[in-house]
Structures are given as structure tokens and as C-alpha cells.
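Let's do one together. I've listed all components of the complex below, 968 residues spread over two lines.
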Amino acid sequence: MTKRIFQQARWNEKLLFELGSEGERGMLIPPFETEAGGRAENSVPESMRRQNPPHLPEISQVETLRHFLRLSQETLGAGLVADFGMATSTVKYNPPVNEQLARDARLAELHPLQDERTVQGLLEVMYRLERFLQEISGLDRVSLQPRGGSQAIYANVSMVRAFHARRGETQRDEFITTIFSHPSDAAAPNVAGCKVITLYPEESGYPGLGALKAVLSERTAGLIVTNPDDTGIFNPRIREFTDLVHAAGGLCVYDQANANGLLGVLRAREAGFDACQFNLHKTFSTPHASGGPGAGASCVTEALAPFLPAPTVEFDGEKYYLDHDRPDSIGKIGSFYGVTANFLRAYAWIMSMGADGLREAANLAVLNNNYLLKKVLEIPGVTAPYQPNQPRLDQVRYSWTELLQETGLKITDISNRSADLGMHFFFSHHPYVVSDPATLEPTESYSRRDIDTYVSSWAQIADEARTQPELVRSAPHNAPIHQMSDPTYLTDPEKWSPTWRAYRKKHSE
Amino acid sequence: MITYPYIPNSAPQTKADMLRELGFESIEALFSAIPPELRLHRPLDLPAPLLSEFALRRHVESLLAKNTPASQALNFLGAGCYQHFVPAACDEINGRNEFLTAYSGKAYEEHGRWQALFEYSSLMAELLNMDVVSLPTYDGLQAAASAMRMAASITGRREIIVATSIQPDKFTKAREYNRHLALKPLDFEPATGKLNLSRLEELLSPQTAAVYFDNPNFFGIIETDGAMVAEMAHKAGALLIVGADPISLGVLKPPADYGADITCGDIQSLGIHMQFGGGHAGYIATHDDRRFIMEIPIRVVGFVPTRVEGEYGFGEVASERTSFSKREKGKEWVATTANLWAITAAVYLAVMGPQGMTEIGQGILQRGRYAMQRLAQVPGISAPHSAAGHFREFLVDFSGSGKTVSQVNHALLERGIFGGYDLGGKFPQFANHALYCVTEIHARADIDLLAQSLTEVLS
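Okay, and this is what the predicted structure of the assembly comes out as:
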């Protein structure tokens, strides 16, 4: 086996607060040309004047830029590695052409309240993107306002609630989800004031119809699930699930954060769903941006459309406009109209791919995943619970339990050693129904070589776990920092330091 | 058959090789779990693709060409989204592919991302005089809604007294998000635009979880009675939440200094382009009090020592409280929000430094005063609340001009000027009033041109 040799950037970069010196400047702010209006401080009532300047660092622009460039080098973004260890997140390629277009001043410098006649181009992008997503979901209307996937999940839950309330069925306050569905599918209904009922998988990897039937009642507001879950196993009886929920008077919400394996294959409409959300930063190729901004597109049937967040984008045959007059709307989900730069990126991505390209993305996401699955299962000690020898869709939740039991190592050791090889490693979402889990999602963006490299690094770690366990246990060695030594800094209120000033108060002599 | 540049394995030979290795005849066979009756048996109905990058660029640019950005006009719109100067360093850093394409990797793979986010929280903490600042939530609307929810949870009470002099969308959002709470509107004094304290006294009760106001308020007015409001709220056993734009805090007192228990708001002003309202991110700040931290619904980054003395490690503080750990039993939810804007704001605050933040605040105050005085000289216009201190925004009353705000703004637009936001729709008491915004980007000549144009439009 060829060992992977890798060393991440390690700058030992100090904190900003330790840089610079008194009087240094990063930016000059010349005064206003006239004091004709009177002195500035006089316009602030004394009770509201800041007494002392904030204790911000004073650093030249040169060193400030250098500092952040170094930090960027110590960040293993998806542009640098085949990032399929960050699974459930569909981390795919972010084309630079879309990036350049999204940063154009004719988008970046638009004010949200400027005259609609001066933003026709962006409104057209929004309108057309909504139509694309209608076609891809098979549903009737789309709101781009939610600023992330979970906010779109919440918007969908909120609209379902409003739908029942409008029909006088306020007792419908229960949402049914599955344990492999994203945590937000359970959290959002709870935030909306609903009870959450969680179904667990049978041997097949998905819950049985009987379990669903047992919890349906006149209190059922809706079903909210992913399909496939992060096991990559598609529940083939989904239409029976949605039909049963409808028969009980509930509605069905499809979490399509990761729709990558289903583009042009299966739509929310045909599966019997009344609402779904797409995360533009996953399936539609906008960057993950170190954890946002993403964007969530909320797609609904005609029956739920009156409840969409306001305003909506409309077209009267001549011009595009925003319709604020939506009396049944649930109101505002996020500021203004959403994360507009991601609308442009997603629009450009779809336009560059077309229908065939979207289907090819799904094809290769699934082909890559099954190729990866086959290769991973050649590593002794790593397994893929549920449905052996069956193809999966876009991702798989693996288990390291056999190897860990054999070697006495922990899953965090494996994860730490992955960093040494320049690979991401995601433990999967809680709870660990699959023990010692790691979910992988190779998307369409990575090559066969990338997959082979990832698998060989897992094989190397598995081998090291057996032959040099201390090397693994003491990892990382090639990362920007060494192993963190005291996790109670994150749990003990006497020690935790969410900011530098808190740290100084608690830990400086 | 097209080989797609974004899809390495779409090369036909690779595909064939991989399928052969898997022992499948076709890719179609990999989808066998999906019943045929649920499948889409036709191509999606989408426009023909623009397969070349130059055709794509030409098409998208033809759409962008139909927009007129504020940078090509003279803009006086604010009302929740602000045209401030964006230092080039901010775009240089947030455009770095490493930060742009990273997601939520752990401390070893993405140490730089974690350190930048910790620095963001630390810089904000200095501005706010509070020891705990969360990573971003989606925007200032969500921050306010979540802060109210936190207060209800901390106090075990369910009424929030909310000033009506806040951005109307903020109120709408907070009400929608907190239907289990009762939001009690607190009006403002018509003459001064400031909080109505006698009404506050009436509204406070043993059910009050918190009092919420923005400073400066939606009309740009600097609230002066913060300490009094804090005292009244605390006496009733309630918390004080204040919404503050961090760009004001070089010159305005941080809310914590007059008794705020939670400060929240939006960081769009800190080096983030307006993007038609796309550039928002929210912050929530508290004191270092376990009861408060355990109620913060979003991520909080904390310092962790490593095996090597002097090295900095980072992790999530008290992560067991979140939805990632507890699903529906967690606090709201943890998800992708707006971290790139936190990194951007960190760059902004680093290049500005203490002097820059003070000077930018002073410059905005001076321009505001100058603009108010200059516009008040235009026949037909008056500036209400002129005795109050203002930051960045102020009302302009067109009632005496014989023209509506809409007519005025149409005429201004013909002159390349974006006039102030028409307040009449959301605030009936301010029919025919517009909310004007001036920031450090406005030169004296810009304000003079506005005054002159208004004079012409109204004559």
C-alpha cells in the first residue's frame, strides 16, 4: 500500500489581538468635509455616548491581510480536497464563473427597496429560478426567501400549520419524522409548537407502514422526512406513506436538502408530497461558505401557496414585480427576499447543465457512491449496515465498530487521523443508531481517482489502527494544530471562553 | 453524449469502467429501488443549456444589465439594509476559495476557519462589551426572534414587550416565530419618536419576560432612556433585549452599558455588500452566564488548549444543548447560517480598529446632521424629531409639499437618485414621510445635490 504523505499549512498564527501595536491603522476614515451641521458628538445625547473606544486591535492593513490569508490556508475547503467526508451536505464543485457573476456590482450593490424598474434583471432571475425548481419538484409555487435549508423546513412546517388552522383544524399539532431524517426535521416542528413523533427503521433501513399507521390520528399535522436518508436507502413504499398521511388528514413535507441522487429521476409531486425544500448550497452548487450563507427554496402545492412568505415574485407579461399583498401569508421568514447571490449562482448552474446535465449529475452521484461503497467494503472492519449487496443512492452511513472493537480505538481517533491525510470525516448526525458511524457522499463532482484516494486513506488508517495504534490515538500530527488536550474547556462554565475577553478573564494570571 | 466539465466521471470510458467494476449493465440499474410508477419518465422541462462558459456569461450578464445598482446612482435608502463602504480586504478574504468552499469541518481540518470565527466573536464582544457572542444566525430578524424566545425560556414567562419603532419586518418575523408568546406592542411618543415610558410602565407585569427595542430605532432616533428602561424591566423581573447595529458602537454606548441582558442585531453594515437584501447575518450576545449560554440556539465557539503550549484549538461550547445533539429537545436548531459574513465582519473590524470605528461613527453623525439641516431648508419639507439625536437615518415629511413620496421618488429617480423609503404603508401616522439614510459614502456634494434636486422636484 502506498502511504499518503500530506502536510497541512501550519502557521502557528497568533490571535488578531496579539498582533499590531498602538496607533497602527488598517484603514483611514477622513472626516466629513464640513462641520456645518455641528460637531458629531453633540448630536449624541450624553447618556448614550460611548465613553471609551472599543478594545479592538490596532494593526496595519498589511498584517491584517496576511493574518487572514494564513487562516485561509489553514482551512481545508472543498476546493482543495475531494470533500466527501462532509456528507449529508452535498459538497460539490462551485464553478468560479458563477462566483464572479454573483459578485458583480449589478447584484452586489442593489438595495432591496430600490424601484422595481431598476432591478428587473434580478427579479427575472428569481422568477425563472422559481420556475425551474417547480419543474424539478413537480410542485406549484416556490419561495426563495428562507436563508438556509432548515429555515425552509421551518417555513414548510409553518405553512402546514397555517393550512390546518385555516380549515379550523387547530388540533392537528403532531409531526411524524424518522430517526435518520435531519435533526432539523424534528427541531423545526418543535419550534413551531408541534409535538414530534419519531419512527425507527426496521431491518430494511426504513420504518414499516405499520409503525406509521400506529401513530396517525386526527391530531396528525404532517409527515416530514428525508428519502433516501443518509443511509442512501430509498424507501420504495413512500407513496403508501404519503397516501396514508393524506387519508388521515395530514400533509407531507419532503426534506430534499440532498436531492442530488434524484434530479430528474423522482419528484416530490409523484411521491405524494405537498411541500419540499431544496438547499441551493447543496444540490444546486452554491458554495457552503464556511457555514453559510446558503439558501433554502421552499416548494409547495397550490393548496399551500396562499401561505407562502411574503412577498412573492410575479410577472404581469411586461414586467416583474414583488407582490406584498398576501393576506394568508405566514409573514416574514427572513430579511427581504433571501440570499440573492445564491439565486444567481444556482440559476447559472442550472442554465449551464440543462435537463440532461442535471440527470447526469444524479447518475454520477449515484454511480460514484456505489463505486465508493464497493471499495470501502473491501476494508476489513468497516461495514455498511442494512441491505447488503443492494445499490444505494447518493450516500451511505458506514460503521467502524468492528475495527474499533478489534483495536480498542475510538471513532474520534479515526477522525483525527483523517485530518493527517487531508480528509474530512463526518460522524453522522445524532443519535448513532448505526454505531461508530461515518457518512460519505461523493457527489458527481469527484473523480474516480479522488474516490480511490479517499478509500486508500481509510484503508491506511485501518491498517495503522491495527499496526500502530498509538500513531492513530495521538493524531493529528500533520494538521495546523496538535490534539486538543482538555475538552472540559467546552463544557465547564468556569473554563469556557467563547471570546478572547472571556479567556483573559478566566485564564490570564 | 456530453462530457461535463463539472462532472469528472462523465467521461464515457470512465463510466463504462466503473459500471463494469460494479457488475452493472447500466446506471439505470442503480436506481432500481425507486418504483417505476413514481419515476419521471421524461426529461425535465428546462431551457436548453448554455454549455460554453462564454455563452453562459453573456446570458447572465444580459440579465444583470437590466439592473441599476446603487453604486451607479446616488442612494439614500436604508430601512434595514445599508450602503456602507466595503473595504477591499473584506472581499479579498471572503473570496478566498478556502473559506468559500469550506463547510463545517472539524478543528483539525479547518483550524483557520475556526480561528477566524472565534476572532469574529471576540471582536464583536469588544464592541458590545459582552463576553459571549454567538456565530451568526440567518439575519437580524432571526436574531431578534430568537433572543425573545431565549428570554421567555430563561424567565419562564411568556410576554414580550416590543417597541413598535423597530423595522416592521422584525416584528412580523418575531410574532410568526414566537406564536407561543404574546408580543405586546410598545408605542413611541409622537413628538420625540422615543419610547413611551408611561405606556411601558402599564405594560410591565409579572408575566413580562423581556422588553425589546432597537437603538437607534427604525427612524434613526437614538433612544436616550435605555438605563431607565433597563431598571423598569429588571424591577419587574424581566430582561432587557436591545437591537443594535455594530457600526454605531464606535460612538454610541453599547447596550450592555445601560443594562441590556441580551444584545442582538445584524452585521450587514460591517463590510458586506447589500446584494438586494442578500447580505445579512444576525448576532446574539450575552454576558458569560450559564443560564443564558444554555439558551443560545446557535453555535458558540470556544477556546481549547492543545498538547502544545501556546497553540490555540477551538470547539463548540456546550454543544449538548443544540438540535444536533438532541433533535426536537434541543434549542431551536443548528444549521448552515451565514458564517462567511462573520469572517468578513472580522476582517472589517480588524482593518477599522478602534479609531476607525470611532471615526466612521462620527462621520455618519455629522453627515446626518448636515443632511437634516440642509433638507429642512427645502421649501415644502420638514424634518420631524429634529431635536432628537439621530444615527444614519431620519424622517423627512413631504406633507407640506403637495406631492406624495412616491411622486417625489419617481422624479428623483429620473435624476439618478434613489430617494428615501416611503413609510406611509407601514406607519399610517407617517403618511407622506420618507426615511432617508446617509452614511460615510456620502460626500457633502451628494447631500447638496439631493437638496437641490428636491428643491427642483418640489417647485
